[in-house]
Amino acid sequence: MEKIKGFQVSRKLIWISSVALAVLASIPKLFDAASTPGDIVINSSITLLFSIFIWYYNIYSLPKFSSQRTHTSFFNWKLLFSVVLGIVVMVILVIGHQELFQISKMDAPIMFELRGVLINLIVYMFLHLLFQNYQTQQMRVELERTHTMNLGAQYELLKQQVNPHFLFNSLNTLKSMVDINDPMSSDFILKLSDFYRFTLESRKLDLIPLREELQILDSYVYLLKARFEDGFILHNNTDPKQYDSAIPPFTLQLLTENCIKHNVVSLDKPLEIKLYTEGDFLVIENPIQLKRGVLSTGVGLDNINQRFMHLVHKEIEIDKTDTIFKVKIPLIYDYHNN
To answer: Transmembrane ranges (predicted)?
Structure first.
């Protein structure tokens, strides 16, 4: 996360700009035949001291150093007060130099006052532009921090949706097996226990290798076969070369579960799911044989899509025809630092 340092103005900037203003203010004296080196030095000294004062006064009058709120209008009472104070300080500096150097004749006071007002406006505008830019950066960093925290919270909720959803369906499956006195109920319970043990071990992981995800899918398919027998068929033709890529855990389980939720699964009409790779995508394909009365809310696919968007800023692709439904998952290769 980008971090913005506290607002600061370089001392080098203050002194260089003050010296530059002093030199600029003394240029007319260089072309005045009646001016002496002493006049030029005194003129420059007044401008230099005034510029330094104005710099530090405006810096310490910023909201950063006071309890005052930032003004929405650029021209406000603070600027007016700074100009009036600058005039008073300029008068004091001129009188002080006259007394210190015993000068009887100097430029008209109005010239010094106009110079002071001009310097005051230049410093004020430049400093407040710097400060507004600093505040804008702070707001941007704070918005990014808040956005990141919100994304993190949303992603944790997405991950937590997986386990309760699967547990609900698994318990329904177990209930059905118990109702028909299926002798495989004990094995189903053991497999379900093993599956949830793995779930607890990997629930905090954002990504896992495809190889491990396929192992999860194999366990899940066993649990499905215990219920549907030959009514459910999965053809896994995934390219072994892609096994080292990664996807969010339980992605394939959720997609398979989604297929079963919306389609007829029976011995008379088996649901055949195909799993294969296509370029940099993993494709899960099923025939469309929709159940009656089951409306798709899109929550499952949206869950998966948001997980990919959060982790790698990629979206899943959905390809649907009258007879085939495909979901294409982007495979992730550079995930070791994720």
So the answer is: 12-28, 40-58, 79-98, 110-131
